[in-house]
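Project standup — Tuesday

K.O.: blocked on the structure for the chain from last sprint. Re-posting the sequence here as requested.
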Amino acid sequence: MNNILKNTSKLLLVLLIGSSQLQAVEKDFANYVNTLQGTNSKFELTRGNTYPTTAMPWGMNFWTPQTGVNRDGWIYQHFKDSIRGFRQTHQCSSWTNDYAAFSLMPVSGKLVVDQFSRALRFSHDNEVAKPHYYKVTFDNQITTEMSPTERGVYFRFAFPQGKDSYVVVDGNSGGSMVRIYPDEQKIVGYCKNANHSAPRNFANYFVIKFNQPFTSCGTWDGKSGSISKNSKDYFGEYAGAYIQFKEGATVEAKVVSSFISLEQAELNFQKELAGLESLEEAKQLAQSAWNKQLGKVEVEGGTEEEKATFYSCFFRSMLFPRQFFEYDTNDKPIYYSPYDGKLHNGYMYTDNGFWDTFRAQFPLNILLHPEMHERYVQSLLDAYDQSGWLPSWSFPGHSCGMVGNHAASLIADAYAKGMRNFDTTKALEAMYHEATNKGPHGPSNGRDGWKEYFTMGYIPSPDYHEAVAKTLEFCYDDFCAMQVAKISGNDFYETIFKRQIYNYKNVYNPATRFMQGRQKDGKWVGNFDPTEWGGPYTEGSAWHYHWSVFHDVQGLINLMNGDKNFVAKLDSVFSVPNTFKVGTYGRVIHEMAEMEMINMGQYAHGNQPIQHMIYLYNYAGEPWKTQYWAREVMSKLYASGPNGYPGDEDQGQTSSWYAISAMGLYSVCPGTDQYVIGSPIFPKMTIHLENGKTLVIDAQGNTLDNRYIQSASLNGKPFTRTWLTYEELTNGGTIQYKMENKPNKSWGVLPKDRPYSASVDLK
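H.V.: unblocked you, prediction finished:
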């Protein structure tokens, strides 16, 4: 009898262990992620413009295999078949290039150090690409594995038997140093490669510690290609090092860096890597970190591909903006400022272009990651203190690409949704300064044509490049600044900004029914063609910028003489031919090719200006068309593989568009507290909020065919409005939709059901 009980207990234990392991697998969200998503990109047409990022959420340093040459923005392209290094990277996009990049590369047999000779062939069949772990086995049988920490990475290199085994360290051009300590099995150094936005004293200091003794070592010069055997110290324009191990060795390397100093890099090493005893331990910690963040949204139902696409996009929504802070000996955050080149206390983030990301990434962040978002908004004002300007595109300092002053959007969105952790008066002062000056750093540093904008109500064309885009985006930014002033009770700034919030009307031509370039004398720029790109528009045409009135869609409807005309224009975006004229670009740029590729008329989802447009049907009494097109875009234009995007992923924006749209939500107008309703992908989504509450989105009967909302309730109370507030969402509870395959043309159609428009709601 006792034996029977013992055997039964063992069986129960096995079953319990098996059950817990199964649950662990089911909760392992990171394994749904494919970091190769969007990597099959090239200059002429991008399918994401991503690289297989091995990193922690918002990590200070990322790591990636490198198929491209040093200092080239195309780090990793899926159609290439060789890797020349494993690179520390901070790259936002191929178009912005990289900074603080150095790399390690295993070499077997003959010692070769330069990036061309050391490149090794591989097959994607021998590649594993997850957020927390990357592995590749080369054709010559060297295997490289790596798992990240926030400021470092844990490598393992397994060399084939019978051949010499080397690891080459490439400090990159632009100024670098390497120093080898054989007795400590260590290399330290720095790299200074960066762009014009970095301060003059910018450097990235690295420490590399190996678990095996060196049998030989040396340095090399990247410009001449010369190798100095037994040399232990080298600095110059382009410095590198190599170390040799016994034949067929399996070598582990722990790598970390700092923007502050070598001493700080050593401290970072002690905090993040010294205590790790194996790659598996590093892998598990990184996997747990990702599962914690990815697990904030649990999905049920749907296909495996839909889950993989969702979690792959959700992963990319949590890479940028990156941490740019480190911790001192007392575990207090400190950072080297990319704005003034000095050391400061507190949190700093960088690497983000707000022209892209104000639209979806930050509204998603404030919903799911409010603690990080609060820190980020404060860091914007810290940047203002340190440089005299708010960021608009930081990389790592003021690079200021694109147009608009969309730090105002981030500040206003946080304020409208209840975040009060920053100095409101300083924020208003900073936004006013941005609106009444032109800075030296780039088109979005202050305002081109700000005097004309204030006096004439628009930016004149062709006097100023991208004049219509700038007018529309400045107009929205003025609304955002006005919101902060209005909510905080600052009548002075409210009056100043409020007078510009309807300036979009000044570039609407009723004769052409498009937003159009306007001359200084008030006349419209001639030879107008709505399919012509460039000129008064930014990376688009009149078809794309017509809808950039985020804060007053009803005002735009009024300009177009009512709902019927407005809806007909929305419909025509998809029905007119997908033709274009290259305009002032003078050639076919990739965004044009991508619009043509997706074949949805003039809808160019691969770029940002039109990404909100499908949600505008909610403002004109036909929300079922938003529901149709939201699901159409998600199902046809996104996937989890190398061709996963219809254009540039853009630092998390395109991924965030998918992630938040998959919840059936979208923030058309950041700076208000509203999220507009679309059509959720999954039958059920459970959102675990940072405040400890849970939001369940229960879409009964939901499938790709059953994409239409028949009825809706919030915590059992029916509603017909086509928006929900931030407070309603973050209070938790259950949103319940009944879904069917035919639209309910009586749900959400009344004027009271429409989302915010300044013409209606601004009192």
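K.O.: great, moving the ticket to review. DSSP finds 20 helices and 33 strands in the chain. Confidence is low (pLDDT under 50) at residues 1-26.
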